Amino acid sequence: MSRGALAALLCAALVLPAQVSERAADLHRRAFVFDAHVHMINRQLYHGGDIGERTPDGQVDLPRLAEGGVDALFFTVFVPEEYYPGRYETKQVLRLLDLAREQIERNRDRIEVALSAADIERIHRQGRIAAVLDLEGAFDLDGDPAVLRSLFRLGLRSVQLAAHNWTSEFADSCCAPAKWGGLNERGRALVREMNRLGMVINVSHASDQTLEQVLEVSTAPVVATHHGLRRFNDIPRTLPDQLLRKLAARGGVIGFHIGNSFHSRRFFEWSLQQEGRAFWDTRHVGEEHKRLTIEEIDRLVAPKFPMVGPPAPDEVLMSVDDWLGVVEYAISVVGEDHVALGSDFDGGPTPPRGIRDVRDLPLLTEAMLRRGWSERRIRKFLGENLLRVFRQIRRG
Fold this sequence. Notes:
This protein is α/β, with parallel strands linked by helices. It has helices at 3-13, 22-30, 41-47, 62-67, 89-106, 117-125, 145-153, 185-197, 208-217, 241-249, 265-275, 294-301, 320-334, 362-370, 375-394, and strands spanning 34-39, 72-78, 111-113, 129-136, 156-160, 200-202, 223-227, 253-256, 339-341.
């Protein structure tokens, strides 16, 4: 495909909100947009359909990714805690990866699995979306490097070390009772094996002690793919300044979650009143789940998907400028080379006021320009920082 034909294709795909200026539209088209955390395949597993079709619900699909100008993403497969008690989680990972590979292949004219930074750049030059397969929650690993290597051979290139909102047999989660005081020896061995394989170590959902110990053990940068800052919302799911500094000092990046709940104390408290519990609370999962078949668990969890945060009154929601203020604070602490986009679309966020879903990402570019960001800083945040770190971890 010629460069002119590719430019025409990208311009046709990008559908811009009315509020986006010509300058912002042009910059967004030229920027390399790489989202560190996007949920796609769970909805298709539970409800059918295809990632290539525009869906009536949820926040992301291939048509909307194209409209939002997304060039690459961490294509996240997620295993909810309900699968853990009966030890179905490994089977569920394999089911999700199988479906992901099948649907990506079915839509190969628009998307392809990327195993390296070179793959990402080649796929991008061809005018397609690069998908880095990412596992959210590593409960199934049990600290076993053989399981990790098997998933690596299936194309997995990123693993969230903490088991979502449960503590695993090798690492403490941020949002469950601690068992190991961070990592145990199996967890440290797993970090070393991920370094050897060149896999991204994702420290989102890790406890503070786990994250700190990962940074001590890892010889490569690590990534907090979808996160927030504790300065703005003092909850265990967010990152304190001292760990943000340590993450950056080791060359890593923090991807900023698009939802209100991580960054706005006001929204978080409102959602607590609405839901009656924190979004990470998994106390409803227990011994009774051991007696269920995997198909029964499928039916139990299916109504959760796609995971979209609760609609909220405008006066409760952050504005896009409020959200960017969080990113700007991180830049003031660690510099512009260590921040990235990690939206978590279809993973539960209620986005800032005025953002419907992934197709509205150009609104961020518009707001960044309005707030005086340089084009260089914008391009770093939208994707160049994440690509740089991915290349470093994958060693090419």
